[in-house]
Design a protein that fits this description.
27% helix
Amino acid sequence: MSEAQPNASKPTPNLWLAILPGILVFAGASGMFLYSSREFSSAGAAITAPDPKDEIAASKPSPGEMMSCIETYGVTMSTSESYVRESNGFPQSRPKNSTGELSTVLRGMIRNNCGRPLRRVEVFMEVRDADGNKGAGWAAVGHLEHGQAEPFERAWMGRITEYKVTKAR
């Protein structure tokens, strides 16, 4: 009878062969992620980059010039006792049997007469209520081409009796 060898050498498994598929999958996925991120970034830059033909649009008029070329017209004041206060964009509930709060909404139009397109137009309005209290705030509209007008809306608490546009940007 032959004696069995106590230390028969078994072939050792090559650990690299077991890890290699995982490394290849990880490298491929990482490469695809980096490539698609670069492509997405360049596509986003092409969308948001200013058009070279619109060099005039890139130069915004000075605030003094804006006051002379921005026209605010057709402003109406509407009062309402159904105002519901908001907190972080959500309406707050009013206690039962409480009286409504009076608010005034100013609605009007802003026209671009600056001779060039403007990306955003804001006008600063100072208001006064029936009790003589003052208030102020910005009303804004988006992109305006030359000669184009857009509506704006701005609300204040109380019964507003007068307003004045003092700044534009």
